[in-house]
């Protein structure tokens, strides 16, 4: 999800498997109960509306060099990363399956929409960087569809179903507050959750080899440092992700300040550009 000056891709080919790996995470409620019993009011999680808006802006700063994430519904281009077209608010890709799932959802809700005729082509190009059956009209039709509130809602819902909600649930199950939940979400957006070593589940597994999350009796700050170390390792495995400033000068900054609840105001940098949320 980015403009033509984008410097990193949003996804990896295995990202469509994210939902299947995270499983049931009901113990988050137990963690909240323990905090309440200890006399600590549970702070809002990342699914709190204000926190979620912050998360969308943080990701957009890294993916789009802009805090205006809602301007990205119409975004579409092939950034040359081998995943075909990248488009929309979370970088849905024609080569990774999540764009196909999105257009299916939109068509289920709005039969006969301008993108529905591309479903056969999206099925054919899934798993490749091909534009076969998509060119020349698909980008212009995507931008047309983006003016439809039904398509905007479909993008929001697929983002939440595949990336945001699983990240928040897994974070809560691990006893993490909003910052940790955001670290999980940002990792899922970029890396997906396939079986490859750089997928989310294996980033988390790498972190667990050196630290325990709060749900397992560990220190939250120490665990998040381990997770971010593992995330940086994963990013450096692929040239397109090798700039790690979205971790080094953003998430690490919040962690060093002890801002585990991701409270505003926030100041950070990505690729040397400065951002602020008041």
From TrEMBL:
GO BP terms: carbohydrate metabolic process
Q: Which UniProt keywords apply?
A: Glycosidase, Hydrolase, Secreted
CDD domains found in the cross-reference section = chitosanase_GH46
Can the keyword DNA repair be found in this entry's annotation?
A: no
Q: Which chemical reaction does it catalyze?
A: Endohydrolysis of beta-(1->4)-linkages between D-glucosamine residues in a partly acetylated chitosan
Q: What is its EC number?
A: 3.2.1.132
Q: Where is the active site?
A: 63, 81
Q: Where in the cell is it found?
A: Secreted
- From the UniProt record, which GO molecular function terms apply? chitosanase activity
Superkingdom per UniProt: Bacteria
- Record function comment: Aids in the defense against invading fungal pathogens by degrading their cell wall chitosan.
Similarity comment text for this entry: Belongs to the glycosyl hydrolase 46 family.
- The protein here is known as Chitosanase
The organism is Streptomyces lucensis JCM 4490
